[in-house]
Amino acid sequence: MGMKGYCKLFDINDTYYFVIYPETAQRFPIDEKLGANLYAACNKVVITTSAERLEVLQNASNAWDGELKKATSYELQQLNNGKAIPYSNWMCEEPGCGLMENLWLNLTDGAIRCGRAQFISEGEKSKGNNHMKQYYDATGYSLVVKLGTIEQNGNADVFSYAEDDAVVDPNLRKHLAHFGLDIDCLEKTEKSTLELELDMNQK
Fold first, then answer.
1. For the chain, where are the E strands, in sequence order?
2. Is 16 helix (H, G, I), strand (E, B) or coil?
3. CB 103 within 8 A of CB 113
4. Which end of the chain is more exposed for a tag (fewer CB within 10 A), N or C?
5. 43-56 burial by CB neighbour count: b if 16+ within 10 A, else e?
6. Are the C-beta atoms of residues 168 and 134 closer than 8 Å to each other?
7. Cα 123 to chain centroid, rounded
8. How far apart are CA 84 and CA 105, in angstroms?
9. CA distance 103 to 6
10. pLDDT of the chain along its 203 residues, tens only?
11. Which are the contacts of 77, defined by CB distance < 8 A and separation ≥ 6?
12. How many CB atoms lie within 10 A of CB 148?
């Protein structure tokens, strides 16, 4: 019997444990019972991108995009509105939304809005109501950065609506500082758009 039209879907779940070697092979769940310092250290290891994955991401970027992201040509003018952005607990500021993931910071005025929903795997989407795009349509403020993807080396998901493309902001450190954010104090907590695409392709 042929298998035409048959498709088997798999769910992939990553589970992490804390293990002490060589004293014991017992596995401990990564939770608050480990103590604040050890729990924080384990979470840091979990979210840190490995050298192997960085190489895969670089190869994927070259293979899929054909070229590296270009520096934005958009002339950003930041408003002196006194807005300060916290380092965590962000929320979409669109009335009635309340999403706390897939959030983008507008580098003109500090507005925080959710992005569009993205396919993660077959039948599964990330959350997003496209409120930042709607905000751009209403204001014309083009340059945005995805909160949670900002790394101390300056890597981050940056998008220019005016250029309709993912770009590099060479002045990201300065632009974040305008809203009271020190890039050296930020940690990557969300997958980048490229990582989400890579995960989807691998699945």
1. 17-19, 27-29, 103-106, 112-114, 119-121, 124-125, 143-146, 158-160, 165-167
2. coil
3. yes
4. N
5. eeeeeeeeeeeeee
6. no
7. 21
8. 12
9. 37
10. 333 333 333 444 567 888 877 766 678 888 888 888 888 888 778 767 666 655 655 555 554 444 467 899 899 999 999 999 999 999 999 999 999 989 999 999 999 999 988 655 555 566 899 999 999 999 999 999 999 999 888 889 999 999 999 999 999 999 999 999 999 999 888 877 776 666 666 55
11. 108
12. 21
CA distances from residue 38 to 148, 183, 184, 189 in whole angstroms, order as listed:
22, 24, 22, 18
**Which conformational region is residue 102 in: left (phi greater than 0), alpha (psi within -120 to 50 degrees), or beta?**
left
Distance of CA 125 to the CA centre of its chain: 15
Question: Contact 45/18 with Cβ under 8 angstroms?
Answer: no
